[in-house]
Amino acid sequence: MDNVSFYSLTLGHLKDHFLQNNVKPFHAQTVFTEIYKKLNFNFQKSDFDTPLITDALGVFDFSLPKIVREQNAKDGTTKFLLEMKDGLKVETVLIPFHKRFTVCLSSQVGCAMNCSFCYTGTQGLKRNLLAQEIIGQYLVAWQWLIQNRPEKSVCPNIVFMGQGEPLHNFDEVKKAIDIMLTTEGLHLGPRQITLSTAGYLPGIERLNEMARVNIALSLHSPTNSVRNELIPLNRSYNIETVLNALGKIPLLKRQFVNFEYLLIKDLNNSSEDAVKLATLLQGKKAIVNLIPFNEFPDSPYKRPSVESIDRFKLILEENGIPTTVRTTKGDDILAACGQLKVLDEITQAKKLRDEKNKNNL
What we know:
two-stranded parallel sheet; ten-stranded mixed beta sheet; TIM Barrel; 11 helices; 2 domains; DNA polymerase, domain 1; alpha/beta
């Protein structure tokens, strides 16, 4: 039987374990600090001042996901293919910003939402990730950052915008966030974490159980007919139902719901769409983040023109809706929004296309 992963433990769990093994619980804080603040994964258990601590820690597994492959984009974005203990793989992305990096974490191996604009959805859902696998992604990425970008190695922010629907894996994501927020551990602030959802209502209705992290909704259309095409989940939980549920979540002062809006040429980027979106969000504590579509192999959609993006943004701002345009990063290595998919499958798909094109010559 495998040892329990250390990264599955809350501080309270570790204290309880120490008490059961005749170790004073304050030592748990020392261990948490050694691991999460100092990233000392290779510490010698014998370094602690009593063999009881060594014995108590001996039952835990301290291994992290394995980097199978890394890709570096021209803009400084780095994408990792990480292998879990059972051999399944996910992608994790380190994204550079002005002051610090952000880690884009996956919450599932694949995804069940089957959104038509998302490359991840084409591989289906394999399984949920465990809390320790979510935390492991962060620790691997941060350790790599310290070793390779030491000038910007301050603890990265987090966005749950990688593979999977985070609220479809609510309990493990919540547990991972609780551990990440622990003062003696990573000590991240709730505002440093953004959780994105496609509108999975059972999870939204449980958000009051979670720390007040930033919430982002993948909206992508102000009309149910178009959103049904983009996000099949909308057929079960439509725009009005999801917005009503989000409206019941108490927000902190100066906290907003971030509405992500994927701009797709000739589908949802017209002036009429912009007006409808502004009307839909009037009176809400909302910020719109416009995301020009990032094309992927065999994608059915196209990226809109810069002029179209600027026009859409202007209409929203003229109607009093704070709006930003997300800068595309990592698209040359398929690391941008909606482009994540296990690299082994991408390589195989490219090989098949190349063979098909060669045969057609």
